[in-house]
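Project outcomes to date are best conveyed with an example. Our students and postdoctoral researchers have been running inverse folding experiments weekly, and each run begins with a structure described purely in tokens. The record below, which covers 161 residues, was selected by the lab manager from last quarter's runs and is presented without edits.
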């Protein structure tokens, strides 16, 4: 049975890759002037936004699971949590603009291109924020990616073995 911590770890990759791939697809759709391609990008963004919401909602359970594990630093969790809120807001904005873009594209509105460009710019910001959030989350349990390992002496002893 999957619990909220496991779901959190699984779903966190969706908004990262969804905002990245959605941005690439939208850029291609803008370049080729393809409404179908833009529609595909908007759907990716909407799914990414939903994934960000799920990741945020399951984050508290994940925190409860890891906060008492030896080597886990509370300040790292707090930094990840704070950045996650900013990322969630950005991805909600991305999802809202994707819904607007999708509607305008279907209606063949003259505002389709400007909204697509704004959505693309929001996707770039969203990707940067959510990628940073993922990086910070990875540091909670993956000290090998941290610039300041929790116990450098232990690491150098292992390397010399």
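After processing, the design step wrote out the following sequence:
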């Amino acid at each position: 049975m999957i619990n909220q911590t496991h779901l959190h770890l699984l779903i966190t990759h969706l908004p990262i890759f969804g905002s990245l791939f959605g941005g690439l697809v939208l850029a291609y759709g803008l370049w080729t002037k393809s409404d179908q391609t833009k529609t595909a990008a908007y759907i990716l963004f909407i799914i990414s936004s939903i994934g960000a919401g799920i990741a945020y909602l399951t984050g508290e359970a994940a925190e409860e699971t890891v906060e008492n594990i030896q080597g886990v630093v509370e300040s790292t969790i707090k930094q990840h949590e704070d950045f996650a809120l900013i990322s969630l807001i950005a991805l909600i904005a991305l999802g809202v603009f994707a819904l607007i873009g999708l509607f305008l594209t279907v209606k063949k509105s003259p505002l389709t291109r400007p909204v697509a460009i704004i959505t693309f710019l929001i996707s770039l910001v969203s990707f940067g924020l959510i990628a940073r959030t993922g990086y910070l989350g990875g540091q909670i349990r993956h000290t090998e990616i941290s610039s300041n390992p929790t116990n450098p002496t232990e690491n150098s002893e292992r390397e010399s073995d």
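DSSP finds six helices and no strands in the chain. The radius of gyration is 19 Å. The training component of this project remains on track.
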